[in-house]
């Protein structure tokens, strides 16, 4: 029995080692895992193509009168200072001519009063003229000068009114709307044409106030429009307001609420595009870096 004991011990150790080896061999190697990347969420917004401030102007009449000439058509390009329309001005021109004649009359009276004053001064120095007569000559000259000032002011007033009968383009742009035709009686303030500089367009977009932290000037924007399927244009956020407002645009998705508060984001175009003034667009704004 003593001779069998070492053999049994060696057999047990060998069996234990074999079991451990098989266990280690069956254990799968650890799998290397890549770090999980969390994609940043883009901000979706809707907007409309508009002109920059001052690049779209409604040109109106500055006085009441009959429109005798309308010199532009819709779609026509006009330069700053070009004549757009003209109101009836015959009566004003007649009044202006009359006022100019009064200026000439006053100037003649002044020349006579100056000559009369000089003669009376000479006589007063020779002690031939009474002081009262010299005072009267001074007064006549002062009255003549006052009448000349009044006549000149009247001329300036009629000239200003006459200028208002000629409606000039305040900017270089395209006539996008014509509101009146020749022969109509126009009231002061009535719109005649709408001009727009189509080279100065941008987008006024409405982003949900919940996306405020993801918006910043300079971030890139992808612009799409329903009338141009499969196409997009690049833009960039130009301005993010400091306050939220109520929604002004009607959402294209009828399921979206209309009474939410939004950020009126301004977006500049970064490349040429065919989008027209007033076009409704959809925006995909890249989130701002944090």
Kindly report the oligomeric state of this protein. single chain
DSSP strand content: 25-35%
Number of helices: 3
- What does the overall shape look like? elongated
CATH topology of the largest domain: Elongation Factor Tu (Ef-tu), domain 3
Indicate the low-confidence ranges by residue numbers: 34-39
* N-to-C order of helices and strands: HEEEEEHHEEEEEEEEEE
Question: What report would you give on this structure?
Answer:
The strands form three sheets. Strands 1-10-14-12-11-15 form a six-stranded antiparallel barrel. A four-stranded antiparallel sheet has the order 2-9-7-4, with no helix packed on it. A four-stranded antiparallel sheet has the order 6-5-3-8, with no helix packed on it. It has three domains: about 45-55 and about 200-285, Beta Barrel (Elongation Factor Tu (Ef-tu), domain 3); about 55-85 and about 165-195, OB fold (Dihydrolipoamide Acetyltransferase, E2P) (Beta Barrel); about 90-165, Helix hairpin bin (Helix Hairpins, Orthogonal Bundle). α2 runs antiparallel to α3 (about 130-165). The longest helix has about 35 residues, at about 90-125. The two termini are about 80 Å apart. About 30% of the residues lie in helices and about 30% in strands. It has about 290 residues and is an alpha+beta fold. Mean pLDDT is about 85; it is low at about 35-40. β11 (about 220-225) and β12 form a beta hairpin.
């Amino acid at each position: 029995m003593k001779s069998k004991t070492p053999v049994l011990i060696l057999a047990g150790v060998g069996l234990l080692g074999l079991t451990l080896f098989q266990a280690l061999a069956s254990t799968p190697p650890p799998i290397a895992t890549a770090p999980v990347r969390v994609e940043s969420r883009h901000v979706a917004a809707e907007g409309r193509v508009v002109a920059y401030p001052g690049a779209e102007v409604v040109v109106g009449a500055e006085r009441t009168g009959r429109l005798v000439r309308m010199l532009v058509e819709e779609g026509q390009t006009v330069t700053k200072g070009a004549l757009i329309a003209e109101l009836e001005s015959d009566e004003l021109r007649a009044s202006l001519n009359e006022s100019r004649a009064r200026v000439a009359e006053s100037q003649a009276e002044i020349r006579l009063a100056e000559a009369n004053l000089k003669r009376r001064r000479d006589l007063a120095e020779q002690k031939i003229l009474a002081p009262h007569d010299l005072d009267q000559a001074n007064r006549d000259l002062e009255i003549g000068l006052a009448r000349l000032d009044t006549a000149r002011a009247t001329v300036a007033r009629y000239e200003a009114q006459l200028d208002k009968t000629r409606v000039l383009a305040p900017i270089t742009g395209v006539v996008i709307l014509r509101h009146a035709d020749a022969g109509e009686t126009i009231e002061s303030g009535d719109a005649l044409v709408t001009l727009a500089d189509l080279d100065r367009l941008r987008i006024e977009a409405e982003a949900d106030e919940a996306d405020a932290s993801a918006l910043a000037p300079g971030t890139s924007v992808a612009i799409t429009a329903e009338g141009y399927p499969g196409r997009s244009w690049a833009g960039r956020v130009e301005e993010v307001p400091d306050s939220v407002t109520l929604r002004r645009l009607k959402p294209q998705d009828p399921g979206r609420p209309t009474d939410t508060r939004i950020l009126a984001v301004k977006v500049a175009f970064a490349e040429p595009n065919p989008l027209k003034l007033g076009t409704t667009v959809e925006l995909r704004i890249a989130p701002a870096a944090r």
